[in-house]
Structures are given as structure tokens and as C-alpha cells.
Amino acid sequence: MTDEEDAAVTAAAKADPDAQPTDVVSRRKAGRPPLARPKRAVQLRLDADVLDRFKADGDGWQTRMNDALRKAVGL
């Protein structure tokens, strides 16, 4: 694109009432904001009875296990 073509396109865009200017807000990434403490996926071998005990309380067992581990290590 030549400089003249670029200037013509820019002028046409500025004159168009439906054309929205790009600013910092419109260039933000979509989606959720980053977590303060992001989680990491790991593979961990556990005794079956320990895992069964956490799963017995239903959904949220991974969060409860994470909370128990944090408490056990003093976090």
C-alpha cells in the first residue's frame, strides 16, 4: 500500500461514523483476568484410601485436598 492509499483509507475511516477508533481498551485480551496464584497440573501417586476419602465428600475434592496440603506445609 502506498502512502497516498494509506492516507485515503485513514481519512475514509475517520469520516465514517460507524468506524470505532482502536484504543487500549479495545486491544485488551479477552477472557478471565490472570489468577493471583495460578494452578499447575501435576501427576501424583496417592494411597487409594486417601483419595477415596477426599472424593467421598463430592465435588470440590481437589480444592479440599489443595487446602489440606497448604495447611500441612504451613501456608
Keywords:
rod-shaped; mainly alpha; 75 residues
What's the short story on this structure?
This protein is an all-alpha fold and 75 residues long. The chain has 3 helices and no strands. The protein starts with a helix and ends with a helix.
- Structural class by sheet pairing and helices: mainly alpha
Main sheet?
A: none
- First and last CA, distance: 58 Å
Shape: rod-shaped
Q: What is the strand content? A: under 5%
Provide a descriptive summary of the structure in words.
The chain has 75 residues and is mainly alpha-helical. The protein has a domain of 35 residues. The longest helix is centred in the N-terminal third of the chain and has 13 residues. The chain is rod-shaped, with a radius of gyration of 26 Å.
Question: Helices and strands in order, then pairings?
Answer:
Elements: H1 3-15, H2 48-56, H3 61-72
